[in-house]
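Morning run. Coffee first, then this:
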Amino acid sequence: MAFHIMTILQNEGFTAWLAGGCVRDGLLGRKAKDLDIATNAGPEHVEKLFEKTVNVGKQFGVIRVVSDKGDIEVATFRNDGPYQDGRRPDFVTYSSPEEDAQRRDFTVNALFFDPTSGEIHDFVGGIPDLKKKILRTVGDPAKRFEEDHLRILRAVRFVGQLGFKLEPKTWAAVVQLREKLKTVSP
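And here it is:
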């Protein structure tokens, strides 16, 4: 299903790559739970190209493509605006894959895979962290966790699920900002 969607997008002249955790899991030899696609196609283009879609976050560039074989989220490469609520950006602007990687939570989740060329795109050092089994934020850990408080919980979950160690600055930010978890919906 995901490859079918990417083929349609690519045939229309758009970039379409697998993104995030599914790339990480594939490189670790784990079965991915969800396949996500990142593209330079805007949400309006995605809606026009596919018969059945669901607006799960169009204001953030995210559209779910639905079929009898499953649902796939397709997200436009983007930059995040400021976060006021500790969970979601106030707005997004569409951007490049390199810029999109810079806004992601952890280096190992900021990887892209182009199935057409077989190339892995790593703009933030995720592959070396995968090899070392280290979980590190993209950029400043405190800033990443202040933006979205759920990322603190995600850090702990990924460490447990993947058997990784938190990079020391990332761990220090988790400890420092742990009270922010009280703002996250149970």
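The helical segments are 2-11, 21-27, 43-49, 97-103, 126-132, 141-147, 150-162, 168-176. Good start to the day.
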